[in-house]
């Protein structure tokens, strides 16, 4: 069907005709079909960021929304989120063997298996365009969840929808709409310059040459990788490679980006640069990001909301600011005076960690001791030279949450 | 279909670019494999110098046989280089990459690697076919068409067989050793005249180890047209292709991924 076809010009009319003549269930299914069909209208590139005609792209978006409606109707539960997960479970069966040769021989004769529950009934939602942190220690089930959401793994039970698609049933259709980066699984060809992989991805995602070139140029500028594109990947630093990896995953302008430990092994500067580019793409293109990381700094810098998992279960979910407010209540104060302090210097409700002649270090919990009397007490004790108030790092807070769930 | 072909062509182009990064290594492997095959064929030359034929097969038949098998094997394992390492890809969780992209997993995985040495097999196969044509003195355009068809059937059965064997990894774990044995068996048996075998052995060569579909049948078809043989090689290619795709995708549901650190070469 060409771009000039009446159906291409008026998809809304076609859909309304269908909607008036069919029951809802059939309408939604038909809408998905028609909208996705219209999305295949010939490409007319308006700028470097779009790969389909406006009509086609709009129809594809509409198709996806309709697909979500169909899912909502079918499941009666899934809202219009980018990601909806309900009671997701994944159990792996692993072989167990006692140590040594006798153990191996016994396992050969009578192998023993054990069920490992990697994901235990996880439920959560992510809105379109949201930056959601998904963190947990090793073996918590983060990567398994992401692999289920990309369609790599089938869950043992539960429901999930990403942009209205059931990942393990509609893997290929979903892959056109999402991007993924796994820190331990590079997608760039090791011996070739990144730009060669970019061109291969162009074919994989069916981008035409003109829009692919414009897109590469746009991403190269956004990620500051212009100088790196023609260098063999094996010669790039880890930080440079990771920026190219994320750029590759954004070539087809996905609506959701799943990042699994993208900052693993990066130094502080490279991490900061990567975070900035992810944030920039989120602001520029509204791409939703589900980010797993070991680094609390990634979450603190990038995400508004965080989900903490441990042993395959969600142990905390809320805004990062709430997490800080709830858990960052212990303040440590370092104070220095211009004059000598009284030797018995103390303040009510404040634990003195160290008291010197000209200064002191103390700690208090704002839930028990309000801040104001502490500051007033400090000011009243003498002429202040310097005051530093510090909080535990988000990392310490998360460790405390892990420890609490271990107990 | 067209979009899949464009995608596979792009993969092959990328494989070629990757191989060209190490030109000397590439050329060494190509020449080395050609010499290796030539030395192997010397034994048949010595054999036929003493015996005129073996159960109706002469030196020219062997040249046709080596032509089809080496060309088919070379083209198959060059274009679908991961066909010989699918088992380790599955066992080490490397299928994640192919599963996260919007392309047919099996086709994408198979075509994502080229073996440089296979280009040597392919070139040797063409030389062998050329020699067979010269010695038989019967070349015509139809023979070239039959040779192309025979090689395609040979590729289809060989790659399908390798996929079938390695798909067992989904059920029984790493099958690298089994794959090596199966690979050696099918290559070895495909390079012998089919007339050497009868009864159960022959049945095995048409079923469990389908070497007959890779070597003898297409080679005989190349030498002289036979409608029954054409039907046999087409049916063999189709059946094994269907079986391999079916079994692979059944197994893929059991895929368990992995957390090993990986590199895309």
UniProtKB/TrEMBL annotation, chain B:
The chain crosses the membrane at residues 29-51, 63-81, 122-145, 152-172, 178-196, 203-221, 227-249. Keywords: Membrane, Transmembrane, Transmembrane helix. PANTHER family: INTEGRAL MEMBRANE TRANSPORT PROTEIN, SLR0610 PROTEIN-RELATED. This is ABC transporter permease. It comes from Caldilineaceae bacterium SB0661_bin_32.
